[in-house]
Specification:
The complex is a heterodimer of chains A (about 270) and B (about 260). In chain A, about 80% of the residues lie in helices and about 0% in strands. By secondary structure, chain A is mainly α. Chain A has one domain: Orthogonal Bundle (MetI-like fold), CATH 1.10.3720. The two termini of chain A are about 30 Å apart. Chain B is built from seven helices and ten strands. Chain B has helices at about 45-50, 90-105, 115-130, 145-155, 175-190, 205-210, 245-260, and strands at about 5-15, 20-30, 35-40, 60-65, 65-70, 75-80, 165, 195-200, 210-215, 230-240. The chains are: A mainly alpha (about 270), B alpha/beta (about 260). At the A-B interface, helix 7, helix 8 and helix 11 of A face strand 6 and helix 2 of B.
């Protein structure tokens, strides 16, 4: 008998083992929900799956009686738009500054302390300022995401740029490159896949800032909706929404990862 | 008398109190193949960095064609390091095209249209010369260590540098592949009229490849303070004209190495 640490599960066993906690969790929910509903059929705290399915169907496929909108899609579009603009701008700014500070010592000496300082400011503490400065409209929410994740992306890319071997920077100069060419032919292309992984890591915080901003001031959006229906203890809406948000986050992460392995095979070969 | 391509006049290199190299006086003519051996810590790599321009002499004059050596790397001096010499994000062909692309467009560092096709053909010819004719669309990580070093040579030589610096380029390769690389380097050196400086740990390699072999060693060595005196070129041998003196040289280098590492 091999030591436990040397034993590897087969592929099938690994998949089954991975599904086991999910199944147990579902089972636990079902029994708890069933027990509560048996006692009080109007219980709202742990709704049955059928109730959640009905609620989800109402939100997704039936026009709202008051506005005529399909709320789930309106909310999803509003949230994804904010998230997309915020994360997209953060990635762009992060790339420009990360490459500049990571590659050019003079720019690093000038901006790096500032970025480090800014990254220590808790973004949520700035939210009131953002609402005051940018109003309660879209701009404040996008700015919160931007302020929340940009310093991290800049710092991460700067660190990754500093990891580029000196040999390659010297080599490029012996091939006749000037400073700008070193940036566009060495730093930038080598940092693109690293930008994608930095964005993947910051998607979690980005969702957090988005939902927080929507909870406080919005008229639509996934975060707005779950905080709105909280007043009526509508767990049958909140839970499907949380699952939907999780699914969206998972799909974004998957898409970014797939894109990166397809577009930058050399990077993922190095990581192994 | 012709102008030497490289001339050192009483060159010293010091880091604070520690003397790495001292009183280097030497001339190298165009077309020489200088191999450099010596114990670790005897300033071989520092010397190469001074030729490259990433390190400057603390005292004395280091001259290229009679003028002061530029204080940063440029297209006149090509280099192949032991590792990390090629760009991992470019295919072999794009790696070799790089020098041409950089000079084609100062802003983008890329070439387009006819220029690009010409560069690609040139790169293919160069790749074929170093035995990578079939590997043009492979990324460096898909190539073996020996193939990566061939690629690095092709990438450096297509720029047609006058001086080629090699920092233990074959140190990480298997012996059989090393011999192939020796033949390749010699044929490239002959056909391009290069001046080569090559650091090696392998004395035999130094004797076999070079027209001139330098031994970097500390002529004065204080066991209590190994940094007090710098290394000098203790032997400057015209290889091929004198009988190999491998065993005695090896013994001397080993003595220094023991003191420096102990």
């Amino acid at each position: 008998m091999k030591k436990f640490i040397n034993r590897q599960p087969s592929r099938l066993t690994a998949v089954l083992l991975g599904l086991l906690p999910f199944a147990l969790f579902l089972l636990l929910y079902l029994s708890a929900s069933g027990a509560r509903l048996a006692e009080n059929p109007d219980d709202r705290l742990l709704p049955a799956f059928s109730t959640m399915a009905e609620a989800f169907e109402r939100m997704a496929f039936e026009p709202n009686r008051r506005t005529g909108e399909y709320l789930l899609w309106t909310d999803t579009r509003a949230s994804l738009q904010r998230l997309g603009i915020g994360v997209g701008l953060a990635a762009l700014i992060g790339l420009v500054f990360g490459v500049a500070t990571g590659t050019v010592p003079y720019i690093r000496a000038t901006l790096s302390p500032l970025v480090t300082g800014l990254s220590l400011v808790p973004p949520m503490a700035l939210l009131p300022i953002l609402f005051i400065a940018f109003g309660l409209e879209e701009l404040a929410k996008v700015m919160l995401i931007l302020i929340g994740i940009t310093p991290f992306i800049i710092r991460d890319l700067q660190a990754r740029a500093l990891e580029i071997p000196d040999e390659q920077i010297i080599k490029l100069q012996t091939l006749g490159a000037n400073t700008w060419q070193i940036i566009v032919r060495l730093s930038l292309p080598q940092l693109m896949p690293r930008l994608i992984s930095a964005v993947r890591l910051s998607l979690g915080p980005a969702w957090l800032f988005l939902i927080a901003a929507e909870a406080i001031a919005a008229t639509e959006g996934l975060g707005y909706r779950i905080f709105l229906v909280r007043r009526y203890l509508s767990m049958d809406v909140i839970l499907p929404y949380v699952v939907w948000i999780t699914l969206l986050a998972f799909l974004m992460d998957l898409a970014l990862r797939r894109f990166s392995t397809w577009r930058y095979p050399w990077f993922h070969a190095q990581q192994r | 008398m012709t102008m030497p391509i490289i001339e050192l006049k009483n060159v010293w290199k010091e880091y604070g109190k520690e003397v790495v190299l001292e009183r280097l006086n030497v001339r190298v003519e165009e077309g020489e193949f200088v191999t450099i051996v010596g114990a670790s810590g005897c300033g071989k790599t520092t010397f190469l960095k001074m030729l490259l321009g990433t390190e400057q002499a603390s005292r004395g004059d280091l001259l290229l064609d009679g003028a002061a050596m530029p204080a940063e790397p440029d297209g006149a001096r090509g280099i192949v390091f032991q590792r990390y010499s090629v760009m991992p994000h470019l295919t072999a062909e794009r790696n070799v095209m790089l020098a041409g692309e950089l000079s084609a467009n100062r802003f983008l560092g890329r070439a387009f249209g006819a220029r690009r096709r010409a560069l690609r053909e040139e790169a293919q010819t160069m790749l074929a010369r170093v035995g990578l004719g079939e590997a043009g669309d492979k990324y460096p990580h898909e190539l073996s260590g020996g193939m990566q070093q061939r690629l690095a040579l092709a990438q450096a030589l297509i720029k047609k540098p006058r001086i080629l610096l090699l920092d233990e380029p074959f140190g990480a390769l298997d012996p059989g592949i090393r011999r192939d690389m020796h033949d390749l380097v010699l044929s490239l050196w002959r056909s391009q009229k290069l001046t080569v400086f090559m650091i090696t740990h392998d004395l035999e390699e130094g004797f076999y490849l070079g027209t001139r072999l330098w031994v970097f060693d500390k002529a004065r060595l204080d066991v209590q303070a190994p940094g007090a005196y710098g290394a000098r070129i203790t032997y400057d041998l015209a290889v091929g004209e004198c009988p190999p003196m491998l065993p005695s040289l090896s013994a001397q280098l080993a003595d220094t190495a023991r003191v420096l590492s102990g």
